[in-house]
Design a protein that fits this description.
Elements (H helix, E strand, L loop, with lengths): L1 E6 L4 H8 L7 E6 L9 H10 L4 E4 L6 H6 L1 H21 L3 E7 L22 H16 L3 E6 L2 E2 L6 H11 L2 E5 L3 E2 L2 E2 H13 L6 E4 L6 E2 H11 L7 E5 L17 H7 L6 H10 L1
Parallel strand pairs: 1-2, 1-3, 3-4, 4-5, 5-10, 6-9, 7-12
Antiparallel strand pairs: 8-11
Helix pairs in contact: 1-7, 2-4, 4-5, 6-8, 8-10
């Protein structure tokens, strides 16, 4: 049986993996949250590896607050860069495959066609810089790895735009949402399945891959679809703005090209609005 360690297990992606664990009986998953395993401390990682044989690590541990990363970049780099280096170092020592989750924010957003894996990263905020550093550590230390860049993750778990819009629709009569950023909302449940399928199918096609749902949207488009599919669009006044002020600079365009993943893994993906509909109706 394949043994898998999932770090950052209480986050939304870790929660989505845990939700579908029952569908992968051939996989033995061990879930550790940030209190149980702090990846910024290499000795804690080593202790886990010494206690059990681990074939794969799915690294869901991350510092994801983009705004706070500008004000306290050392905290972002501690987890997203130093912590990833620690994981990669231990994975190399124990011949373990690392599946590391990265982000569309490694790009600057100046392109106007979907980003491919070979495009040169150029992050414009501290969060993106810290995630890119993590990617580099994985590539420098390991040969057996999958770096999966994804975008605009949402689910029924954790803190995310999807849950925020639903919550605000219960207490507010007006919402003003930006149109200045374009990307692809991605259902973390779909990403969880993609990751476990890579392991189940014993793929050795290592490298960097882009994964998201299909299509593109602005945050306004995403909010409108959430409200429409949940039957709340008529009860709230939704307004557009192109002047949404944030402390961190954000890429204006960060749509990911997923053709490499589709071809390599014979992947069938859903349009973002279709996957959102599926989640809301469930």
């Amino acid at each position: 049986m394949v043994s898998i360690l999932v770090t950052g297990a209480n986050g939304q992606l870790g929660s989505c993996i845990k939700k579908i664990e029952k569908n992968y009986l051939q996989l033995n998953l061990c879930f550790l949250n940030s209190n149980e395993l702090d990846i910024s401390k290499e000795n804690e990682i080593r202790d886990v590896f010494e206690q059990k044989k681990i074939d794969f690590v799915i690294n869901c541990a991350a510092y994801t607050n983009v705004e706070k990363s500008e004000k306290e970049p050392e905290k972002a780099f501690l987890v997203n860069a130093d912590g990833v280096r620690n994981l990669a170092h231990i994975c190399d020592k124990y011949n373990t495959t690392l599946i590391h989750i990265s982000t569309d924010y490694v790009f600057d957003g100046t392109k106007r066609t979907p980003y491919i894996e070979e495009d040169i990263p150029n992050p414009i905020n501290e969060y993106g810089k810290s995630k890119l550093n993590g990617e580099k550590h994985v590539q420098e230390l390991l040969s057996k790895y999958f770096i999966i860049r994804t975008s605009w993750l949402y689910s029924e778990f954790g803190h995310n735009f999807f849950k925020t819009i639903l919550k605000k629709s219960e207490i507010e009569t007006e919402l003003c949402i930006t149109t200045s950023e374009t990307g692809t909302p991605t259902n973390a449940n779909d990403l969880a399945q993609f990751i476990l399928d890579i392991i189940k199918n014993q793929s050795q096609e290592y490298g960097i891959y882009h994964y998201s749902n299909l299509g593109k949207a602005t945050w306004y488009d995403f909010a409108k679809e959430i409200l429409s599919l949940s039957g709340k669009l008529e009860t709230i006044q939704l307004k557009k703005t192109d002047n949404y002020v944030t402390f961190a600079r954000r890429p204006g365009y960060s749509v990911l090209n997923t053709l490499k993943a589709q071809r390599t893994f014979e992947l069938s993906q859903s349009e973002w609005s279709s996957s959102l509909d599926s989640l809301i109706n469930k």
